[in-house]
């Protein structure tokens, strides 16, 4: 009976301690909640100064191989932030708008130790995720370039990454933990601090929009050719144009210049392939690989030259020294038979450009 009584007392005491412990934990939670609420409503005397937030290393994931640094004359185009005191080492700007989103520049004069930036100036950009329409799935890609003004050189030290940065509801802040060594930055002889404690930072935030226009360029092979027999060739005194022909889905004319053109004048027969009007858009360039031939009527070797060129502002290309007058006059060569000359154009490749829309 005494044994049972002692067990009952032990259980009661244990229960009492349990109740006291629960009461203590609940009161501490309430105190923390009230304290957090009060701290949330507190405003700092110095505007745009960040004193409590630390950026963890999960916000930064850039390899040195992707980082590009240098000096440039142009000022930041998105936001500039001048600081006239270095008493405080962490700053954040007011929100500024780019691409329909609000952004904040964060400056750590003595480095963000939470991100391995001890001994360096650290710079970050934060996006206001409240601007996301679908916060769970929306992503915003941005190009970032950070600036530190150098008074000595009247230029800006810049640092950027070769890739774009992906912002979403879980990754709202990106930047560089090691922008510039603090010793370099704070030595007045280097020009980053001037007029005592003055310094200037900046950032370019570029939110690229999806392209609405595009084009696809391709080159396809072709076996199209056109053979043209010119009668009474020796009597021709003017340039001669062929009928309109179709090669590679385009309309063309062959131009034969019996007296020669350019450097071939007076010594060679010249031949050109001319693109007809309305066969290309005003801004379109068409690449062509084509062979010009004079057919040997004695079944010997043809005289052949290849042309590779772009048809754009220039609509006519050809060979100025296709065949010499001496070879034409020599009947044993077999090119001019019964005063007939046979020429041929064979298209081997032509480009196509598709435009969207």
Automatic annotation (TrEMBL):
**Keywords, comma-separated and alphabetical:** Signal
Task: List, for all copies, the residue spans of the domain called MATH.
Answer: 76-205, 223-347
**Presence of the UniProt keyword Signal in the record:** yes
Q: InterPro entries in the record, alphabetically?
A: MATH/TRAF_dom, TRAF-like
Q: Which domain of life is it from?
A: Eukaryota
Query: SMART domains of this UniProt entry?
Result: MATH
Q: Where is the signal peptide?
A: 1-27
Gene3D superfamilies reported in the protein's UniProt record: Apoptosis, Tumor Necrosis Factor Receptor Associated Protein 2, Chain A
User: Do you know which PANTHER family this protein is assigned to?
Assistant: MATH DOMAIN-CONTAINING PROTEIN (PTHR46162:SF34), TRAF-LIKE FAMILY PROTEIN (PTHR46162)
Protein's UniProt name: MATH domain-containing protein
Higher taxonomy: Eukaryota, Viridiplantae, Streptophyta, Embryophyta, Tracheophyta
